[in-house]
Amino acid sequence: MESQIADDVDFHGRYEAEDEWGTSATSKTQAYITGKAIVLDYSFGRQPVW
Questions:
Q1: Looking at the whole model, is its pTM more than 0.85?
Q2: What is the mean pLDDT of each run of 10 residues along the chain (50 residues)?
Q3: What angle do CA 8, 34, 15 make, to 5 degrees?
Q4: Contacts of residue 15, Cβ cutoff 8 Å, sequence gap at least 6
């Protein structure tokens, strides 16, 4: 999911889970905010490594 919080601030979120019979579930969660402040681009939170 993605949502604009303010003019130059966006939220990005993702949840993915897998489960197989007899094993524990594995999940991948991402939730982070990106934006721009004057001339600086920023990104913080739990996110993929690019």
A1: no
A2: 93 81 68 92 83
A3: 130
A4: 27, 28, 29, 30
